Structures are given as structure tokens and as C-alpha cells.
Amino acid sequence: QALLARIRQHNPQLNCFITVTEEQALEQARAADAAIARGAAGALTGVPIAQKDIFCTKGVKTSCGSKMLDNFIAPYDATVVERFNQAGAVMLGKLNMDEFAMGSSNETSYYGPVKNPWDTETVPGGSSGGSAASVAARLVPGATGTDTGGSIRQPASFCGITGLKPTYGLVSRWGMIAFASSLDQGGPMARTAEDCALMLQVMAGFDDKDSTSVDRPVPDYSASLNDSLEGLRIGLPKEFFDEGLDSDIARLIDDAVAEYRRLGANVKEISLPNMKLSVPAYYVVAPAECSSNLARYDGVRFGYRCKEPKDLHDLYTRSRGEGFGAEVKRRILIGTYVLSAGYYDAYYLKAQKVRRLISEDFKRAFREVDVIIGPTSPSVAFRFGEKSADPIAMYLSDIYTIAVNLAGLPGMSVPVGFSKGLPVGMQIIGDYFSEARLLNVAHRYQ
Ligand code: GLN
């Protein structure tokens, strides 16, 4: 009730929630009280959380930030949602996001932008901006996010919270609306690594409904948070600390690295030579997959349908034309172009080869080091409108995060201080399934 009151007070200004599920939340809270009274509490019994509006929630609107799904009430729960329910968590509502998770500032949401609670003239980051801002504003202690190219880490960084993008395949994508299926991964966003560990514990693990889900035991993420960092090998990629990086951000990361040295870590410079190709490769692969995934929104089975269509073709074209926003259309057009017969080899196939080279860069690096540290984003939160007219400038705000998705690796953003009054995030990248290690490294600095 205290958080619902806080949401009522602050959400009109911050715009974090698309839907507040007040009645359902109180019902779940009463059930949690009863479970505790019976001595039957689960891992998160009574813990309030909120879901990014990309996760299907049975009986509750699931919009994905789009007019296309403004009328969509999901008929089932996503696996992630089901697992939170089973653990006893109380869902307060559904969080605002860039349309279909395409964006870095929340400005593409059909429901209007989320405001960054640290300075409401600046963006919260995206696409999980509602998740990051709601945790930062203390409207909820933990929220889910999804990360296709940086959408958990960059908003976590802009809002001064902790976010973890797991290894591809660790968290089920079933019921998580698809943007780019080979890159999408859900993960926790919370104040600290400790809280992220509790959430990931619930979210992670094999799901036979997702064919890319990996069947392997899930470690106890909380158990190793305080492990020693003596002998930890940290790599600093020189490509992450070039002229493009703000000097305040570089200094804050240096401070964190100095602390890791005091804790016994060994630090060395490494190189990820193909890093500069990650944004161009991503903006071929992600739109290609998006153009295919979004073909299902045809105005026929569910979602938005135009008024009085003349014929079937008119129904398709006007439903999609009216239901999708400009950024989504841009991605669909790029995607169908790079997949078309005449351009497939030159763009799509080439991008897949570049993707392999990027993975190999990381593979080489992880033979020498245990974790890679660098910035999450080249700048702190920018102002509304600053990049929205220039897609390329917007795309570049994910320059340090995108390679991690192309390789399928886990990555985290951890708050390390402030520059010009706005939060700065540090990124920690690990080898496949090293989430426990990342949480440990993050926790020791928090
Ligand atoms: N900003 C990137 C994009 O617009 C990444 C988004 C994401 O991770 N969902 O595609």
C-alpha cells in the first residue's frame, strides 16, 4: 500500500507505469501475508516488483509500448512472470518502455516518455526506462527489463541503479514479446547487485517452452556475493577508453578499478579489435529479426485493427501503418531490405560474419582475463529531444553494450558515482554463465 501510494503520487510526473495493477497487487499481498502466517513463504514472498510491459501477464494489458498492442490483454503469463508469482512476489504493474524495445531514451513509447527521476528534463535511457526510473524513484524495489543491445544496462546507468543482462539462454524468453530473438534476454534491475541476485535466482533456469533456453544447473547467486577478489584478472579494453568517452566517466571507472586493485585484483589492458563494427552489425541483424518477428501484427488475429478496411490489403497496410510508430517502421524497412534477395549477402550475411568476429574477440579476451570492465554508456543521461531527430546519434549511445548481445555474453551496469549531478554506470562483462562472478564483483564495490 505504501508503494501504491508513492506510485499515485509520483507516476503522473515520471510516467513509469503504463498499467498499475492495484487490486491484483493487494490480493497477492494478502496471499503473501497468509503464506507467511502458514510458514510457507517462498523466495520473494511479499516482495513488490514490477514487470516491463514486454512480458505477457494473464488478464492484464501487455502493450510493449505500442499502439499496436494498446488493446492486447495477454491470455497467459510469460515464464518469467509465472516464476515471480510462484516465488510469492507482488506485481505492482507494467512498466513503460520504448515501442517494441526499440530505442535508447524511452522517447519512442506510444505512452509518452518516462522522465529520469534525477533530472526530469533528461531521458531515463531505454528501452527499459520505466523499469530503471521506477526503481531509482523508489516506486518499486525491483523490476524486470530486457536487453537486446543495451536496454537493461544503459537505463540502469542513466538512472543510477544496478542491472544485469544474463547470458543468452539463461532466462526464458517464452511470453516475452520478441524484438530480435537471437539477441533478446530478460534480466533483473534493482538498487544493488544483492537484490539483482535474488531476482535472477527466480528468473533463471531451463524452460522447455523456449527452444533457446539452456538446461544447466542454476548456482546460488547470493552465496558468492562476498567472495574474495584476490587474484581476479580484470581486462580494460583499450577500445572502450578512447576519445569518445566523457572524462568524468573515465575517472569514475579508474577509481573503481583502483579499488579492485586494493582488493587484490590484477588489471591489464586488453584489445577487442572488432568492437567498432558492433553498432553497424547490430543495426543489420536486429532489424532483420525484427522485420520477421513483427510480421505477425497484421490487424487480423490480435492487436490494433484499422477502421473500415476496404479489403484485405487495406486492412494489413493501414493497421500496420497506423499501429506502428516511426522507429519501428524504420527498423522493419531496414530489416526487409537487408534480407531481400539482392542484398542478403552484402548485408545480412556480412553482419553475421562480423558477429562471429566479435564473439571471437571476447573468446580470446576471456583466455587472459576473468572479467572485462568499462563504461556502460559514453555519456550520462541526455536531454529530451537531443538525439531523437538523429537515429545514428541515438544508436551510438549503445556503443559499449551492443557487442555483448552479439556474443550472447552476460553484462552488468553498476552505479559508480555522478557527473554533473547525473548517475554514471560502470559495465562489467563476463564469460558465458559467469553471472555469479559478475554479481560478486559488483557487490564488492557496492
Ligand atoms: N537501443 C537499442 C535499440 O534501439 C537496444 C534496445 C534494446 O536493447 N532493446 O535497438
UniProtKB/TrEMBL annotation:
Its EC number is 6.3.5.7. It catalyses: L-glutamyl-tRNA(Gln) + L-glutamine + ATP + H2O = L-glutaminyl-tRNA(Gln) + L-glutamate + ADP + phosphate + H(+). Gene3D superfamilies: Amidase signature (AS) domain. InterPro entries: Amidase, Amidase_CS, Amidase_dom, AS_sf, GatA. Residues 1-439 form the Amidase domain. Keywords: ATP-binding, Ligase, Nucleotide-binding, Protein biosynthesis. This is Glutamyl-tRNA(Gln) amidotransferase subunit A. The lineage of its organism: Bacteria, Pseudomonadati, Pseudomonadota, Gammaproteobacteria, Methylococcales.
